[in-house]
Amino acid sequence: MSEARELEQLRQQIDSLDQQIQSLINQRARCAQQVAEVKHKYAQPGEPVVFYRPEREAQVLRNVMARNEGPLPNEGMARLFREIMSQCLALEEPLQVAYLGPEGTFTQQAAVKHFGHAVTCRSQISIADVFREVESGAAHYGVVPVENSTEGVVTHTHDSFFDSSLKICGEVALRIHHNLLVTTPDQKVERIYSHAQSLGQCRRWLDQHYPGIERIAVSSNAEAARRASKEEGSAAIASEAAAELYQLHTQAANIEDRPDNTTRFLIIGRQPTTPSGDDKTSVLIASRNQPGALYQVLEPFHKAGISLTRIETRPARSGTWSYVFFIDFEGHRDDASIAPVMEELRNIAVDFRWLGSYPKAVM
Ligand SMILES: O=C(O)C(=O)C[C@]1(C(=O)O)C=C[C@@H](O)C=C1
């Protein structure tokens, strides 16, 4: 048999499978439309209908990865279903998602990784503006960076929760690769722009390759790329997406000091989520300035055998508090094992806020 004949036979099989896949995807989309009708039917009078269900999406993606037999890798298969769900959700309600911009930031990439491509992503110039867009209802959800594995916490995000009623309804982790971007290859570099966190994540590389060159922190990596594209002698540390967006040349790729450099982002919204079966909860606890304050806060978790995944301390915002702890732990606030711990924390804290219970990042 000839190559052409063998290819033709296999391509006929692919065409037949594509027709079946396409028909099943549309069948699934029609189901999602019926789900939307059910959500409308049982919506509380005067309450907004909540179409996006992060707990259900996490379950769908976990199931996809659990039953995947290959040859496609689990994450690749999950991304395909992520896009199918994104399109199905758009049939129910087109989502508006605010993110820390401008275009080309890692936060934009995180928004697309979490929601898929069918949502409308709206760039904001600050983390506070992302919160404001969601609080005002101009956006359904927001995406903000919260911590990086090299540089630690994004303090603006933590501080925004002090004055906000928004809840965390999801999280997404992104491997961060930084590139040195220039307008022309091997150009003279007199200054390097980037977000402060990115400058920190590439500190050793910069010391080695550009010692003595001025490093200027700006509001985001994409803003850094925008400036480098306009200013003679300037370079930027930013992503491949920013290089494409601002037509910049990658002078050096993957310059981050740590190969496992990861940033975690939070999804913020106005509605709480229900348990997904594999969740986390975030709380804010303010305690008095007294010996053993931290021990008193941690003891209820220890007694209940609850695993903490993160604890950060922020400066108090008023004289009455000395320590404010942001704590993430395993479990959902509706879990039987968690409710009593939350009650005990409320009793011992000067101030206690439940910031949200949400599915652990799946991809
Ligand atoms: O099950 C639902 O609640 C749906 O709306 C369906 C679906 C899906 O495509 O699987 C779509 C959007 C939701 O965010 C969750 C899941």
From TrEMBL:
Keywords: Amino-acid biosynthesis, Aromatic amino acid biosynthesis, Cytoplasm, Isomerase, Lyase, Multifunctional enzyme, Phenylalanine biosynthesis
Pfam families noted in UniProt: ACT, CM_2, PDT
Location(s), subcellular: Cytoplasm
Source organism, top-level taxon: Bacteria
EC number: 4.2.1.51, 5.4.99.5
A single MF term (Gene Ontology): chorismate mutase activity
Pathway: Amino-acid biosynthesis; L-phenylalanine biosynthesis; phenylpyruvate from prephenate: step 1/1; Metabolic intermediate biosynthesis; prephenate biosynthesis; prephenate from chorismate: step 1/1
Catalyzed chemical reaction(s): prephenate + H(+) = 3-phenylpyruvate + CO2 + H2O; chorismate = prephenate
GO cellular component labels: cytoplasm
Example of a GO biological process term: chorismate metabolic process
Main location, first listed in the record: cytoplasm
NCBIfam families (UniProt xref): CM_P2, PRK11898.1
Function in brief: Catalyzes the Claisen rearrangement of chorismate to prephenate and the decarboxylation/dehydration of prephenate to phenylpyruvate.
PANTHER family in the cross-refs: PREPHENATE DEHYDRATASE P PROTEIN, PREPHENATE DEHYDRATASE-RELATED
Identification of the protein by name: Bifunctional chorismate mutase/prephenate dehydratase
Gene it is expressed from: pheA
